[in-house]
TrEMBL record:
Sorted UniProt keywords: Calcium, Hydrolase, Metal-binding, Signal
Domain of life: Bacteria
Organism expressing this protein natively: Alienimonas californiensis
Protein name: Arylsulfatase
Keyword Metal-binding carried by entry: yes
């Protein structure tokens, strides 16, 4: 392999020399470092997956991977909307420190970019000799900004840069790297080419090329399914169900995601690299549907009322994700664990597996999950912290430590307190009974966040004039 140092490599100077030496490593030495795939599904509810109890939507491939790997009951997102959730993964930071703590649109196309100089998981892996790619939805900065995929460690990109554009499954165009690829067959509302077809082909092509080159690779598969606009080119087995069109489309979108994941795993097996590839799968922020709506009830997305809340909230139904890890021969098969972890743990995890070092001055909020993935206990930590800056309720917060969870659901509002070991549905607010724990939670929330002019303190922010549903 010929290694060309990317422009940000000065931050990784000690590692650069090691990478240059590794370029001459034997294939056996290279094979010791696994390929890394993170599949992020957009707005998938934990209850949408068969392995989590879904009975109407078919997800045979996810169910098989859960049976052959480890399923996590307490896998937490970075926060409960798209851009900050994926930014938390990409930076290894929770919402108290992450540069992106809300969805914020920039101009006609694109979102608030990751800032100049931000360390990312892709940079770390690229600097360690990994071939890197993102397919699907980016949402962390247009190509002419500091948040461009190509300024943050990505070699190959295909899909939507702007997450607002990604609401269309029959778009007028997609991006192949930085080149805009027109799709005239979708003009004027026509449904000629389903975007997921092209995104899946790009993912398979990247994996096939990397496997043929015998190079370790990192793939961030940021699937748009099953986020709205709820469009599908084929309702398949659901076409004749006595359901609404929305329900049939949604079910078909989840099953299409499942099919494409199965196809990806099949390719890994065909290329002989499945046993040297870690796949981590997760939803990004819970369902976009209130569980009390007809579709939420149809598919029991709240899992019999087990979880409260959905996207844009701070309750468990928004923060806990359908998640599993699959790595045959390394990750225990059939394991189900309730020990918690969060998206910001993946950066140090992937770095350790890649034998890569973080820049000396970079502090991640995450803990490596390598031992946990392989069957050991989850790493110990003081707390998990979230915040979100919404236009309706204003900034909100949540923090979990041990079995306790504190939630401030609206700006400057009171703090609620729940014991998750006895009340996973967060129905019994114990704040009046345990004021000392509320005080402890507030102190931890204050310590967990770094002040930022764009992200006001949820404890003192101006109360909202309206509340978003």
């Amino acid at each position: 392999m010929t290694f060309s140092p990317p422009p940000f490599l000065s931050r990784f100077a000690p590692l650069a020399a090691a990478v240059l030496l590794w370029g001459g490593a034997t294939p056996a030495a290279a094979a010791e470092r696994p390929n890394l795939i993170f599949v992020l599904s957009d707005d998938l509810a934990q209850g949408d997956v068969g392995a989590y109890g879904q009975e109407l939507i078919q997800t045979p491939n996810m169910d098989r991977l859960c049976a052959g790997g480890t399923r996590y009951m307490s896998a937490y997102t970075g926060t409960s909307v798209c851009a900050p959730a994926r930014s938390s993964f990409f930076t290894g930071l929770h919402m108290g420190h992450c540069p992106t703590r809300a969805n914020r649109e920039i101009g006609a196309e694109g979102q608030r970019p990751l800032p100049e100089g931000q360390v990312t998981v892709a940079e770390i892996l690229q600097s360690s000799g990994y071939r890197t790619a993102t397919v699907g939805k980016w949402g962390m900065g247009m190509f002419d900004t500091s948040g461009s995929p190509f300024k943050t460690g990505i070699d190959r990109f295909f899909g939507y840069n702007c997450q607002r554009h990604a609401h269309r499954y029959f778009p007028d165009y997609l991006y192949d790297n930085e080149t805009r690829v027109e799709l005239p067959e979708n003009a004027d509302g026509q449904q000629g080419t389903y975007a997921q077809d092209l995104i899946q082909n790009a993912a398979l092509s990247f994996v096939s090329d990397a496997a043929a080159a015998d190079e370790p690779f990192f793939l961030f598969y940021a699937a748009t399914l099953p986020h709205g606009k709820f469009e599908i080119d084929d309702q398949g087995i659901y076409a004749d169900k006595p359901w609404s069109e929305l329900e049939k489309n949604y079910a078909a979108m989840v099953t299409r995601l499942d099919h494409d994941l199965g196809e990806l795993v099949g390719l890994l097996e065909e290329k002989g690299v499945a046993e040297n590839t870690l796949i981590v799968f997760a939803g990004d922020n819970g369902s976009s549907f209130n569980p009390n709506t007809p579709i939420g009830k149809r598919f029991d997305q709240a899992m019999g009322g087990t979880l409260r809340g959905y996207k844009r909230g701070m309750y468990e139904g928004a923060l806990r994700q359908a998640a599993f890890a699959y790595w045959p021969g390394t990750i225990p098969s059939g394991r189900v664990t309730d020990e918690p972890w969060a998206f910001w743990d993946l950066l140090p995890t992937f770095a350790e597996l890649a034998d890569a070092e973080l820049p000396e001055d970079y502090e991640t909020d995450g803990e490596s999950l390598v031992g946990f993935l392989k069957g050991g206990p989850a790493p110990q930590r003081d707390y998990f912290y979230w915040e979100l800056h919404e236009y309706g309720p204003g900034p909100m917060q949540a923090i979990r430590w041990d079995d306790w969870k504190a939630v401030r659901p609206v700006a400057s509002g009171p703090v609620e307190l729940y014991n998750l070991s006895k009340d996973l549905g967060e129905k019994d607010d114990l704040s009046d009974e345990r004021p000392e724990l509320v005080e402890k939670a507030v102190a931890m929330m204050n310590a967990a966040r770094t002040a930022h002019p764009d992200w006001p303190d949820p404890a003192t922010a101006e109360p909202p004039k309206r509340r978003r549903n």
